[in-house]
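Many introductory courses stop at the sequence. We go one step further.
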Amino acid sequence: MSTNSDKYIQQNQESRLTRLEVINENINSSLNEIKQDIKRLDSEIKQNISEVRQDIKSLDSEIKQNISEIRQDIKSLDSEVRQNISEVRQDIKSLDSEVRHDIRRLDTKIDSNFKWLLGVMIGGFASTIGGFVTLGGLIAHAHHWL
């Protein structure tokens, strides 16, 4: 019986060995698939990183270009603003001199009108006094007071 038992044990061990070999093959196959997936993912990640770096370089270049354009626009605007300020100052100076000239002209006109009006008032007052004196003289002469 020992032969049968040994035979059975041997068959059982062979069966287990076969199963273990199958399991080992399955594990190796799975490991190989995992390794391939890792290599594929690594390659994809490296490709994505490369693309991201290119995008970053492109964006960096665009940003630098935009900054350069903005600086040029600012310089242009600064030049225009300075020119406008200069023109406004010139206009203000011109208006100031025109206003001063107009004020002098009006002062002269007012002075001449005032002088003319004062002359008329003094002349009218003198004429009125002269008329009263003349009229008083005539009345005095008529009443024989003189």
